[in-house]
């Protein structure tokens, strides 16, 4: 046996039903205080003259070696994470990240460190266990397969790499956008835009222009934050991002993002899709004037029906609507010269009703306690349902409740895309794609843990977000390939006697890939690198992205050690 930190490795013989024995390299380890075992490598049948691929390599250095002799002379140093490195190495090459980073490095010939390797290491670590750059330096870079990541980087090199990523943000976005694209023969881009906030575990506002207190979508008013604006296409692939001071009003970001997008990507024509927070006459005119190069800019933006009170009788009159399916109805008109599409959804109507009933239930509960008007209702969404506050006799306003209930299920869109280019159904579908941006924020904040941010200067903040952007770009490309291939999760849930299939996600595949290890084995004076099996969902991801599975024998030392 060979003790490796809290791990014990040994050769175990297992026997099948026919009585045939097999050698396995087994690792015993602790997981939350419990001792568990996992097979790292199959070494062949008992009685054979070699241990599968391992002994084939050892045979270069020894003329005769039986399986039992090899077992006695094996020396296992440790195991190293391999699977995620192989997958991300392929993604870096396939989608132009590696040559793009090499080009950036060539622009800084005086660099004293390997810029490409450090970026790759930090992105791998965001998929393994996102954390600080200090954790990468102290712990994680020593756990990765060193034959891919040769050399150890200093902590200040990791921080310097963030500075370079910040400096070359636009070059990175442009390089990824134009990789394998035909400039002359491309369809219209539908660009989805939304904003979120990212918090800092800090209250300081004196270290730069970005860290500011503001309206937090995470409900953390005790922390400073930045506002992150993200652009993605309808496949979920991120195109670019901008970061704004934490006290920026989201509607004010549109003028800037549209201008920068046009400058970055030189797109001939794209359709800008955004939610109701960006609905204003000023914003729509800006898109119209600046989104396009050869043509006027086009947009699909959520419409605030409540602010156009003079047309409520028309907008909420379902007798004007055309049924599109059992769930959706649609009415198209115009507003200030643009197409105005009002929809009614059965599902949205039920959701609106449930939301209102939840509010009314809370108000009724308060009314039973005879509250004073001063502390009765502070939320403006609640206050509209209550009357008699000034007289000190609060009660539910049944007339307002009835009026609000007639608005359940309605939603408005405004667009200047001509009807001969996009039908009402196409416009609605394009807007529905905004969930993709919300999903992207969930992955960036959740899986990749972009926040809380542990950097304070503007340059480091932008560098950190550029790193997270690159990591999400890799995840989004893998997700797209998994969807295109229709890859199903191997472990299916059984409900009521039927198997419920669901798509494999990158997160699930990466968890299994983390168990794919590179194992340095020393036998006598020869050292070889072998890997354990790649199977299940990990193998499915390899196949979906077109990454070759390497042989079990990764590398064999030709010289004595």
Give the overall pLDDT as a whole number. Answer: 82
User: Order of strands across the biggest sheet?
Assistant: 9-8-7-10-11-17-14-13-12
- C-alpha termini separation: 21 Å
Helix count? 20
Radius of gyration: 29 Å
Beta strand %? 15-25%
Largest sheet: 9 strands, mixed
Number of strands: 22
Residue runs with pLDDT of under 50 for 5 or more positions: 1-6, 48-52, 57-68
**Portion in helices:** 25-40%
What would you call the structural class?
alpha+beta
Shape: globular
Can you describe what's shown?
- The chain is an alpha+beta fold and 561 residues long.
- Helix content is 37%, strand content 23%.
- The chain contains 20 helices and 22 strands.
- The strands form five sheets. A nine-stranded mixed sheet has the order 9-8-7-10-11-17-14-13-12, with helices on both faces.
- β12 and β13 form a beta hairpin.
- α3 packs across α5 and α3 packs parallel to α20.
- The longest helix is centred in the C-terminal third of the chain and has 28 residues.
Give a quick summary of the entry.
Helix content is 37%, strand content 23%.
SSE topology:
Blueprint: E1 2-4, E2 7-15, E3 21-31, E4 34-45, H1 52-58, H2 67-73, E5 74-76, E6 80-81, H3 83-94, H4 97-106, H5 115-128, H6 133-138, H7 155-167, H8 169-178, E7 189-199, E8 225-233, E9 238-245, H9 253-265, E10 270-274, H10 281-290, E11 298-303, H11 312-315, E12 322-323, E13 328-335, E14 338-345, H12 346-367, H13 373-376, H14 380-383, E15 386-387, E16 395-396, H15 398-405, E17 410-415, H16 424-432, H17 435-445, H18 458-485, E18 493-495, E19 498-500, H19 506-513, E20 517-523, E21 526-531, H20 536-545, E22 553-556
Parallel strand pairs: 7-10, 10-11
Antiparallel strand pairs: 1-2, 2-3, 3-4, 5-20, 6-20, 7-8, 8-9, 11-17, 12-13, 13-14, 14-17, 15-16, 18-19, 20-21, 21-22
Helix pairs in contact: 3-5, 3-20, 4-8, 5-18, 7-18, 9-10, 19-20
């Amino acid at each position: 046996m060979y003790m490796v930190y809290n791990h014990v490795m040994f050769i175990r013989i297992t026997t099948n039903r026919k009585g045939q024995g097999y050698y396995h390299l087994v690792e015993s380890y602790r997981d939350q205080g419990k001792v568990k075992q996992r097979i790292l490598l199959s070494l062949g049948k008992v009685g054979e003259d070699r241990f599968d691929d391992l002994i084939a390599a050892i045979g270069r250095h020894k003329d005769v070696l039986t399986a039992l002799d090899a077992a006695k002379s094996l020396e296992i140093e440790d195991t190293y994470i391999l699977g995620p490195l192989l997958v991300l190495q392929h993604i870096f090459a396939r989608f132009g990240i590696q040559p793009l980073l090499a080009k950036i490095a060539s622009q800084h010939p005086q660099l004293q460190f390997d810029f490409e390797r450090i970026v790759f290491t930090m992105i791998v670590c965001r998929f393994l266990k996102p954390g600080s750059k200090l954790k990468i330096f102290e712990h994680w870079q020593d756990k990765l397969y060193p034959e891919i990541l040769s050399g150890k980087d200093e902590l200040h090199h990791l921080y310097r790499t963030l500075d370079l990523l910040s400096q070359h943000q636009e070059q990175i976005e442009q390089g990824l956008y134009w990789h394998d694209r035909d400039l002359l023969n491309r369809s219209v881009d539908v660009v989805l835009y939304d904003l979120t906030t990212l918090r800092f575990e800090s209250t300081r506002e004196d270290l730069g222009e970005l860290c500011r207190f503001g309206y937090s979508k995470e409900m953390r008013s005790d922390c400073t934050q930045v506002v992150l604006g993200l652009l993605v296409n309808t496949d979920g692939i991120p195109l670019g991002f901008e970061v704004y001071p934490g006290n920026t009003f989201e509607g004010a970001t549109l003028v800037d993002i549209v201008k920068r997008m046009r400058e970055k990507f030189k797109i001939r024509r794209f359709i800008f899709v955004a939610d109701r927070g960006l609905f204003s006459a000023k914003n729509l005119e800006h898109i119209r004037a600046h989104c396009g190069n050869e043509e006027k800019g086009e947009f699909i933006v959520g419409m605030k029906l409540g602010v156009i009170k003079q047309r409520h009788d028309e907008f909420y009159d379902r007798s004007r609507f055309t049924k599109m399916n059992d769930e959706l109805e649609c009415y198209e008109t115009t507003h200030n010269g643009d197409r105005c599409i009002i929809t009614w959804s059965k599902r949205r109507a039920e959701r609106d009703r449930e939301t209102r009933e939840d509010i009314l239930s809370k108000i009724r509960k308060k009314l039973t306690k005879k509250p004073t008007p001063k502390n009765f209702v502070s939320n403006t969404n609640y206050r509209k349902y209550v009357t008699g506050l000034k007289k000190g006799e609060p009660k539910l306003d049944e007339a307002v409740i009835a009026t609000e209930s007639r608005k359940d299920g309605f939603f408005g869109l405004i667009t200047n895309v001509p009807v001969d280019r996009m039908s009402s159904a196409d416009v609605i579908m394009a807007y529905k794609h905004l969930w993709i941006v919300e999903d992207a924020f969930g992955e960036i904040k959740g899986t990749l843990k972009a926040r809380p941010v542990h950097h304070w200067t503007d340059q480091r903040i932008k560098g950190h977000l550029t790193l997270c952007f690159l990591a999400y770009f890799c995840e989004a490309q893998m997700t797209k390939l998994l969807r295109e291939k229709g890859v199903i999760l191997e472990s299916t849930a059984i409900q009521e006697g039927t198997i419920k299939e669901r798509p494999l996600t990158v997160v699930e595949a990466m968890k299994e890939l983390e168990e794919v290890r590179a194992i340095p084995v020393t036998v006598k004076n020869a050292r070889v690198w072998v890997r354990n099996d790649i199977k299940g969902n990990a193998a499915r991801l390899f196949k979906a992205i077109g990454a070759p599975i390497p042989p079990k024998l990764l590398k064999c030392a030709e010289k004595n050690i």
